Recover the amino acids of this structure.
C-alpha cells in the first residue's frame, strides 16, 4: 500500500464535486482522481442494472490510477452499485448513503428524519434501510426531488427559479416534525442555502458530502493509509461529456481552476 | 468473527459512560462490556508508563469476553496507550482523540479550535498533533482543566460549585475567536450544559463521546462486523473501586439500572 496513491471519486456529473471539496478541506494532503459521467447524467431516473454497468465502467477506467480507495460520490450509484463494486475490487469502497444515515442518527433528537434524493435513490429505499438497520425506531420521511439535479448541472444554484423549484418540491415536508434532513444526493449541497430557507432553521441539513469525507478520514486513519503530510497533491478530473460547463461549475464550487480531461467512451460503453 | 461479540469499553472511571450512552443510542444492537478503573482514577495526572500499564491490564481483563473491538474511552489513556494496545491485539482499537479531531476539522469555519482536557492529555499534545496531521493550518488553543474530573466522579454535574469551577477554568478561553471546542475528556459531556453557558452559543462543543460512537459505527460497517439487528443486548459493567457511586452515576446518566460487577485487582496490579 502506497499512501501516496489517490482517492478515486466517481459521480454521474458534478455532484461528487461536493464530496471532493470536503475531502480537499478535511484531508488537504490526499490526492483525488475524479470522474464525472456528464455524458450520461442524470443517473437518478435510470434502471438499476444500467447504473451498475456505468459504475463498473468508471471504476475500471479509474483503476489505471491505482487508487487506494474508491468513493461512489453519487447516491443513486451507491444505492444500486455499492455492494457490486465492493465484491470486485480489493480496496475500501465508500458510498455516500451510510455516512449521511449515521450522521443523522447521531444528530436527531426527535427520531424523525427527512431524506430527499433522486427518484432512483428514494425508490431504492436505501436510506430507510440504512437508518432502520441502525435503529428500527427511527421514522423516515422520504421525498424524491427529480427537478434538482438538472438545475445544478446547469450551474443554476441561486435564482428565483431555484427558489420556486425547491419550494414546490419541499413545501409538503414542512408539515412533519423532523429535526434533520439528509441531502441524499451529492448535487444538493449546491442548493443548500435555498433548501435551508425553505425548510427553516429548526431542520438541520445533513450533507452526505461532508459526512462522507469525514468517514473517509476515519477509514484511512484506521487502516493507516493516510497521505504523507508533506504532500501537496495535484488532483485530476475527468468527464465523459462536454468539459465547458463542468469546468465552470468546478471553478465556482472549488474556487480554483482544475486539471480536466474529457474522456471519450467507446460506443459499446454508452449504454 | 462473531458479530454478536461485544464492544469492550474502558475508562479511568465513569467518563466512558458518555461513550457507552452514545453507542447505546447510535448502535442499539451492540453489546457492551465496560470497565471503569474507579480505584485508580483519575488518570490525568499519572505518568505515561503507568497509564500504559493500567490500560494493558484492563485490556487483558476484558479479553475474556472476546470483544470484536476495543474502545479506549479515556483521552489520557488514548494519548498514552492507543498505539501500544494496537500493537498487542488483533481487533480494531478505537481511541477518542482522533474522532473529536476529525469532527472539529469538519465543523470549523475559522480554523481556530479549542481543546480542553486533563493535564496528561493536554501536555501530551495529542490533539494538536491529530489536528495538525489533518490540516497544518489549524490553530489550536489548549487548556488543561484538572478540576473537572473530580466533580464528575462525585456526581456533581450541575451546581453553583460546578459553574464557578468551570468559569474559573474556561474564562480566559473566551478571548479567542474559536468556533468550536473539543471536550477532550470523556468526563466533560456530563458538564456540557455548564461549559456551554460559560463559552457562549457561538462555540460549538464537540463531544468525543458522540463522535467516537459515530466512528465505531463507521468501522463496524466498513468491516462488516455489525451486530444482528434482532439482538437486544445485555450490557455488562465492571469497576475496580467501590460500586456505589458508579451505580448512581450510571443510573442518572444512562437512565436505567446496570449490571455492575466490582472487580478486585491483585495487589501486584495496583500500580
Amino acid at each position: 500500500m502506497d499512501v501516496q496513491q489517490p482517492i478515486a471519486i466517481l459521480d454521474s456529473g458534478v455532484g461528487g464535486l461536493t464530496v471532493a471539496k470536503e475531502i480537499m478541506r478535511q484531508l488537504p494532503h490526499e490526492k483525488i482522481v475524479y470522474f464525472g459521467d456528464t455524458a450520461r447524467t442524470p443517473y437518478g431516473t435510470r434502471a438499476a442494472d444500467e447504473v451498475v454497468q456505468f459504475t463498473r465502467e468508471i471504476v475500471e477506467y479509474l483503476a489505471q490510477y491505482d487508487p487506494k480507495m474508491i468513493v461512489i460520490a453519487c447516491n443513486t450509484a451507491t444505492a444500486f452499485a455499492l455492494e457490486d463494486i465492493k465484491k470486485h475490487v480489493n480496496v475500501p469502497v465508500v458510498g455516500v448513503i451510510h455516512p449521511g444515515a449515521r450522521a443523522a442518527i447521531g444528530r436527531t433528537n426527535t427520531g424523525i428524519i427527512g431524506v430527499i434524493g433522486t427518484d432512483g435513490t428514494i425508490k431504492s429505499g436505501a436510506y430507510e434501510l440504512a437508518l432502520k438497520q441502525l435503529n428500527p425506531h427511527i421514522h423516515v420521511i422520504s421525498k424524491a426531488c427529480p427537478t434538482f439535479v438538472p438545475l445544478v448541472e446547469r450551474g443554476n444554484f441561486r435564482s428565483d427559479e431555484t427558489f420556486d423549484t425547491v419550494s414546490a418540491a419541499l413545501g409538503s415536508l414542512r408539515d412533519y416534525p423532523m429535526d434533520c434532513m439528509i441531502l441524499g444526493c451529492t448535487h444538493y449541497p449546491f442548493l443548500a442555502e435555498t433548501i435551508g430557507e425553505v425548510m427553516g432553521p429548526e431542520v438541520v441539513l445533513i450533507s452526505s458530502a461532508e459526512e462522507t469525507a469525514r468517514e473517509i478520514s476515519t477509514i484511512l486513519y484506521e487502516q493507516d493509509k493516510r497521505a504523507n503530510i508533506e504532500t501537496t497533491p495535484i488532483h485530476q478530473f475527468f468527464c465523459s461529456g462536454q468539459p465547458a460547463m463542468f469546468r465552470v461549475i468546478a471553478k465556482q464550487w472549488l474556487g480554483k481552476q482544475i486539471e480536466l480531461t474529457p474522456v471519450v467512451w467507446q460506443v459499446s460503453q454508452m449504454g
Chain B has two domains: 7-96+211-269, 97-207.
